[in-house]
Structure formats: structure tokens, C-alpha cells
Amino acid sequence: MNDDALRQLILDQLGEKTKLRSLSGFKLDFSANQGFRKFFFSASCKCKTAALLSVEIADSKSDEEIYTAIPSLIERLKKQEQSFLNMDCSMHSMMKMGSYGKMKED
Fold it and tell me: What's the predicted TM-score (pTM) here?
């Protein structure tokens, strides 16, 4: 299965009501795991903070193995989105400032 088909499969499984946005052109490699395909999504809050979420699938997985794993990958992605959305906006502000914000406060 090529990357476009796999991304579409993920989006189809997320459903039409999802607020996650696919970041198809996003090409960062934060993983130390070589040999994985990475698909990035964005979750946004009303305070204009966005979270970067991702799904990684091993290149070695067959189409059948991917279809079998998709429900748990989707569940995990939705839980990550919900965790982000359950944080209040003051927590999002602290996340945006990161360690630089803490240094300025000291």
C-alpha cells in the first residue's frame, strides 16, 4: 500500500466528524526508528494552540497487517487528540512557551 492510500485509510477510519487535520506535506523525522512511515496530524484548540500528533507504521508490515492494526492506531490517535483537547488553555499556553518561557520567569 502506498503512502497516499495509507493516509486515506487513516482519514477514512477517523471519520467525517474528526477535527484532526492531515499534514500530508509534513516531513519531520523525530523517530529513532528507521524503516517506519510517519503520518502527521494536527489537533487545534480554540486558543489557537495546535498539537502535532503522528502515526508510525513499519515499512515491513503487509497490507493485511496494516488493516488489522488500523483500529488500535486510530483509537490511540483519538486518545491523543482528546488528551490535548481536555487540557485547558492555560496549559496550552505553558506548552507554547516551553522551557524558554520558564527561563524568562526565573
Answer: 0.76
